[in-house]
Amino acid sequence: MGNTPTVACIDRGDKDYLNKYLTPQQIHAVQETWDIMKEDLPTLGVTVFLRLFETEPDLKRLFPKIVRLNEVSQLEMDVDRDMLQRHAVTVMEGLGAAVESLEDSDFLNSVLISIGQTHVRRSVKPQMLKRLWPSLNYGFIKMLGARYDSSTAEAWRRLYSYISLQMKKGMENPDIETLEDGPDHLG
């Protein structure tokens, strides 16, 4: 397999379409609040990841370029802020790409499965995905304030559940190929 890019092959009978997770109103709420948050991705991303490191300290080991280890391999909160910001912005841009693809489940699923495939190569386990949600939710609260009401929070929670499900498929099948366009998507 090497460094060959992979694209997930999705069985049409096994699709988890987004419309089973989110109503049109929830999609609108997610997109509307994303339009606000995307104006400051560095702040959002750093807020999310610092909160993750604070609440889930064992996950710091997954970020060796960001969180430095001491001589006896014990994790410390010595964070390379520049690397953290770059990674956090990349993750938030990925989230933004998902939000902007909500009308195209096939494309969205393919992208999320591919992201899952890259995460498995970094020793991220499927059960770890749910551990990010509280920190992501915390970041949304900090960025949106009163605009992040209970119905908007529920829409984002449902979207994150969907994202996690699709990424998990990629993590569990790291070598499958995907077809974003092709005959398998015709019927």
Structure description:
The chain is mainly alpha-helical and 187 residues long. Helix content is 53%, strand content 4%. It has six helices and two strands, in the order ααββαααα. The chain has helices at 24-37, 41-55, 81-100, 105-120, 133-144, 150-172, and strands at 67-69, 75-79. α1 (24-37) packs across α6, α2 crosses α3 and α2 crosses α5 (133-144). It is globular. The protein starts with 23 loop residues before the first helix and ends in a 15-residue tail after the last helix. Residues 1-14 and 179-187 have low confidence and may be disordered.
Distance between the termini: 28 Å
List the uncertain runs. Answer: 1-14, 179-187
Read across the widest sheet, the strand sequence of neighbours is: 1-2
- On the 0 to 100 scale, the average pLDDT is 82
Principal-axes shape call? globular
Instruction: Kindly report the oligomeric state of this protein.
Output: single chain
Describe the SSE topology:
Elements: H1 24-37, H2 41-55, E1 67-69, E2 75-79, H3 81-100, H4 105-120, H5 133-144, H6 150-172
Antiparallel strand pairs: 1-2
Helix pairs in contact: 1-6, 2-3, 2-5, 4-6
Summarize the structure in short:
Helices cover 53% and strands 4% of the residues.
